[in-house]
Design brief:
Helices cover about 50% and strands about 10% of the residues. By secondary structure, it is α/β, with parallel strands linked by helices. It has 2 domains: about 240 residues, TIM Barrel, CATH 3.20.20; about 30 residues, no CATH class. Strands 6-5-4-3-2-1-8-7 form an 8-stranded parallel sheet, with helices on both faces. Helix 5 runs parallel beside helix 6.
C-alpha cells in the first residue's frame, strides 16, 4: 500500500497509534527503523533544530516545506506536517497545503491561532475569530480536494484549535466539531487540562482525533492504551526525541570537558543507521563507484 494511503488505513483501525515526532531526516529515519507506523514533524522541535530558536512563528513557509521534503526523502511511512496557521489568509493556506503535499506530507495540520503563533503549551496564546478559523479549514479542504482532482498526491487535513486556553473547552469543542463538519480528516483540540476534558472531546467531536502529549505540559500524560479507550486515534509526542537528544548532547559535552567517559552508540551501528551499508550495497551496481570505508 502506498504510504500516503496508509495513514487513512491507520486511522480506520480501532486503536491509538503511538506517534513519536521527528524534527529532521535523521530523527525521522530512526523512528521508521524502530518500527513505528507513522510520524509527525513537530513545529517546536523543527524550529529548535533548524533555527536554534523557539516555536513562535519564526520558521517560514519555505523553510517548513524544505524541512518536510528532506524528511520525506528518507521515509516510507506517513508523515504529518505542521502547517501552523497557513502563513497568512485563506489563499496562503491553500498554497501551504499544495506545497506540503508536493513535498511528500501525508497530512497537514492547520490551526486557529493568530499569527505569529505560539507553542501550544506556552502562555499568551490567542486564537482568531470563528469565521477566520473556519475559512482556514475550508481553504485547506478545498486545496486537498483540488490536489487529488488534479491527479496530485493524496493529503489529509488535520484541523487544530487552541481555543481551550483563551475561550474555554466548550468553544474549543464547538470549533473542532465545525472543522469535522467542513471535512477535516483528523481533529485536534490542544491542551485539555484533565482526563475528563479529553473524554468530553472524544465524546463530542466525530471522526479520528489526535492527542498531544508534552511531558511536563498541560495535558495529562495518559498511556496510549488509555487514550485509545477514550477515543483517540493518534498520540503525538512532539518533544520526547528532541528532549532526549538535547539531554544526551548536554551531558556528553559536560563529560568531555570533565574528561569523563561518555556513553556513545557503537560506531558500526551509527554507520548502519545513517545508511552507509545501504549506500555501499547500492553502489556495487556501478563500476566507477568504489567502496571507501571510514
Amino acid at each position: 500500500m502506498d504510504y500516503r494511503n496508509r495513514l487513512q488505513a491507520l486511522l480506520e483501525e480501532n486503536t491509538c497509534h503511538l506517534m513519536p515526532c521527528c524534527f529532521d531526516a535523521l530523527s525521522a529515519k530512526l523512528i521508521e527503523q524502530e518500527g513505528y507506523p507513522l510520524t509527525f514533524m513537530s513545529g517546536f522541535a523543527a524550529s529548535a533544530s533548524r533555527l536554534g530558536a523557539p516555536d513562535l512563528g519564526l520558521m517560514s513557509y519555505g523553510e517548513v516545506v524544505d524541512q518536510v521534503r528532506c524528511i520525506t526523502s528518507v521515509l516510507k511511512i506517513p508523515l504529518i506536517a505542521d502547517g501552523d496557521t497557513g502563513y497568512g489568509n485563506a489563499m496562503n493556506v491553500r498554497r501551504t497545503i499544495y506545497g506540503l503535499a508536493q513535498a511528500g506530507a501525508s497530512a497537514v495540520m492547520i490551526e486557529d491561532q493568530v499569527s505569529p503563533k505560539r507553542c501550544g503549551h506556552t502562555p499568551g496564546k490567542k486564537v482568531v475569530g470563528r469565521d477566520e478559523a473556519f475559512d482556514r479549514v475550508r481553504a485547506a479542504i478545498d486545496a486537498r480536494d483540488e490536489v487529488m482532482t488534479e491527479g496530485g498526491p493524496k493529503v489529509l487535513i488535520l484541523g487544530r484549535t487552541d481555543a481551550r486556553q483563551e475561550l474555554g473547552l466548550g468553544e474549543a469543542i464547538n470549533r473542532a466539531m465545525k472543522f469535522a463538519e467542513l471535512g477535516a480528516d483528523i481533529s485536534f483540540v490542544e491542551s485539555p487540562r484533565t482526563e475528563e476534558e479529553m473524554i468530553e472531546i472524544c465524546r463530542s467531536v466525530p471522526g479520528p482525533k489526535m492527542a498531544n502529549i508534552v511531558e511536563g505540559g498541560l495535558t495529562p500524560e495518559l498511556r496510549p492504551d488509555v487514550l485509545g479507550e477514550i477515543g483517540y486515534s493518534l498520540a503525538a509526542y512532539p518533544l520526547t526525541l528532541l528532549s532526549a537528544a538535547m539531554l544526551a548532547m548536554r551531558d556528553t559535552l559536560r563529560d568531555m570537558k570533565a574528561d569523563r567517559k561518555t556513553r556513545l552508540m557503537d560506531f558500526l551501528e551509527l554507520r548502519d543507521r545513517v545508511g552507509f551499508e545501504d549506500y555501499y550495497t547500492l553502489s556495487e551496481r556501478y563500476s566507477a563507484s568504489k567502496r571507501r570505508d571510514l
